[in-house]
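Lab manual, section 2.4: Encoding a predicted structure.

Procedure: take the sequence of the chain (319 residues), apply the prediction step described in section 2.3, and record the output as structure tokens. A sample record is shown.
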Amino acid sequence: MSRTEQLTVALLAVPRVIPLDFSIPVHLLGGQAGYRVLVCGDERDAAAGITPTHPLADVPEADIVIVPGYEEPEAPLPEEYLDAIRRSADRGGRVVAICTGTFALAQAGILDEREATTHWRFLASLRERYPLVRVIENQLFVEHGKILTSAGAGAGIDACLHLIRTDFGEAAAHEAGKDVVAAPARDGAQPQYVDVLTSPRANLSATRSWVMEHIGDPITVQRMAERSNLPRRTFIRRFELETGMSPMRWVVSHRILSARRLLETSDWPIERIAAATGFGTAANFRASFRREVGTTPTTYRRTHSVNGRTPEGLTPDPR
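Recorded output:
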């Protein structure tokens, strides 16, 4: 989208709201010039320190509706909140749930036959109460069409950064993440938790840092295993436990991340970006970028570059 546009975000002050879950989108999205955040609800339901500034009637007109987590999610919410969520989904707006806010979406009926997640403590309850929902376990967030559901508060940060990245680009998400000291580019498929504890000495962060420093070089699983002083199969198993991704999937995701930042902030030609981020040829880069991001590098640059247009001297990508 153009950086001059402003999207309206309706944040629901639902009964029994969890203040931390409520504060995350207020801080992250409220800090973005491209968002106008409205706190919508009924004053009679207001939690301590949270006062609605707009009525529920304004919710369906918002571009994005966010339902924060709330206590006792098995207990139903008032019908006026559910109706506002339904009407927003019906008109094609994006709907986001943080933590137990997923229960409100399920209660409203907009998650039927859709994939969704919530905090791991409530997954069994969600599955039992709403059998038509395709519950996804142990992921930070799940995006199905225009509906985004996430796990606990930490995953709510990831979900909000994902919104910023989608609307305003990787550089904007990176700056927002720095503001809250959040790890950059955590993929939704990463696990909420790991059942197997790993000692600090077994942590593979040094190997991942090495990959980031050499993102433009040829990188293989075997090479990463050797740097970790581990057999290949042991390395793969530990890497997946720590990141929730296979080693090469993680590498590709960070190559795409680096490419996005260069497209947004530099005037480098596509060939130079392809080489700098390890994709080799421009053709391979274009194919990988389209597959991962859903658009061409030049279209992405035109939408998300700092000056909002294709830099001079660069030819638009016809593909």
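Check your result against the sample. Residues 8 and 36 are 5 Å apart (CA to CA).
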